[in-house]
Design goal:
Layout (H helix, E strand, L loop, with lengths): L7 H5 L5 H14 L4 E2 L3 H8 L3 H13 L3 E6 L4 E7 H4 L9
Antiparallel strand pairs: 1-3, 2-3
Length: about 100
């Protein structure tokens, strides 16, 4: 797939920073037709040109605003899946395990 769909509500929100919207667009692209993906922070950092610390801050912003849901793997102490909440509302299986 050569494109990703980005929710207009997220794009036009004045409550979400431009940087976070850019990261959201990358995540949407990685999800493709699915409502979830699981890129490493290092991958998001390389794709965006932002530091790992900035990626963590932006992921927190998107999560806090309810745009994405981060599912954690407690044994590895890291995020394993990012759910797009605008698409997940209609999804039957949100855990993708």
């Amino acid at each position: 797939m050569n494109y990703g769909r980005v929710n207009n509500i997220v794009c036009y929100s004045e409550l979400i920073s431009l940087e976070a919207k850019g990261l959201y667009a990358i995540i949407c692209s990685l999800c493709g037709n699915k409502d979830y993906c699981y890129p490493a922070v290092s991958t998001l950092s390389k794709m965006s040109g932002k530091s790992r610390a900035t990626i963590h801050r932006l992921l927190k912003e998107l999560s806090d605003k309810g745009v994405i849901q981060r599912l954690y793997n407690p044994s590895q102490r890291k995020t394993i899946t990012y759910n797009l909440m605008d698409k997940s509302k209609n999804s039957k299986n949100q855990n993708h395990e």
